[in-house]
Amino acid sequence: MVDPKLSYEKLEKLKNLLQSYKSVLVAFSGGVDSTFLLKVCHDVLGENCVAVFSNSALSPKREKQEAEKLAGAIGAKLIVLERDIFANEDFLKNDMFRCYYCKKDLIKRLKELKENLRLNQIVEGSNIDDLKDFRPGRKALEEGGIKSPLFEVGFTKDEIRFLSKEFGLPTFNKPSMACLVTRIPYGSQVTLQKLEMIEKAEEVLLEKGFKQVRVRHHDDIARIEVDFEELPRFFDLELMKDISNKIKSFGFKFVALDLCGYKMGSMNQQ
After folding, report:
1. Where's the NAD/GMP synthase domain (predicted)?
2. Distance of alpha carbon 10 from alpha carbon 12, whole angstroms
3. d(CA 104, CA 80)
């Protein structure tokens, strides 16, 4: 349960913290947290707030389009940073620290951009609930001196969703996001083909009206995760057959449904 008074107290602390930065480059994905952060940054700092979206094969195309719309609605300037993740040999090892290697590379690019734009700080949208999952990228943020103001103030995900709704942000009920490589087990080769297969398969589920979706890539098998409450929809045999046929057309031989439903960080348990 969210305490509105406490949420607004944290909001005031956040505004004061952002004001002390004077100018910021906001790492912006278009998700719940970074959209809320960008909104508050822009309200406090105006033109001294610039958003940057990291675009690569790890991001579904729809996320870039949504990020552009959201930044435009907020009124913030958005820069799209193009990245080639296949040039990062450490990341391609696909071990448990792949997120750390990816973040290290991204932070280097963000620092260059910050200097070119003559901005004071780089900020990103981690909140305290992120500590509940394995997040090696957090170490890269700390080493790189990246500010996490929502984390510093103590915002929870529910508080961010509450205030986002109060602000009229369309992301207040947006499902949790994660880059496409999180659908590939550690140790398996990361290829553009796999990422495209995953993106297309998830698009099928989203088009069918499922909200929180993941398609985990296990070689020939596509393992579908949806919210537990949405699992009964698969009792519709025609829907199930249609989804299976479409996902198989992308290169999978088998399509499986995880009966436990979606769980954040499930691939960390492999």
Report:
1. 20-79
2. 5
3. 18
Average pLDDT of the segment spanning 133-140: 81
Range with the lowest mean pLDDT among 34-38, 132-136, 206-210, 263-267?
Answer: 263-267
Write the CA distances from 270 to 96, 186, 187, 215, 265, integer angstroms. 11, 8, 10, 15, 10
CA atoms within 13 Å, Cβ hemisphere of 184: 25
> Which residue in 42, 41, 31 sits closest to 149, CA to CA?
41
Three-state SS string over the chain comes to: CCCHHHHHHHHHHHHHHHHHHCCEEEECCCCHHHHHHHHHHHHHHHHHEEEEEEECCCCCHHHHHHHHHHHHHHCCEEEEEECCHHHCHHHHCCCCCHHHHHHHHHHHHHHHHHHHHCCCEEECCCCHHHHHCCCCHHHHHHHCCCECHHHHHCCCHHHHHHHHHHHCCHHHHCCCCCCHHHHCCCCCCCCHHHHHHHHHHHHHHHHCCCCCEEEEEECCEEEEEECHHHHHHHHCHHHHHHHHHHHHCCCCCEEEECCCCCCCCHHHHC
Q: What is the pLDDT of residue 268?
A: 58
pLDDT (mean) for 185-196: 97
State how far the alpha carbon of 238 is from the alpha carbons of 17, 202, 206, 241, 245, in Å.
53, 18, 17, 5, 11
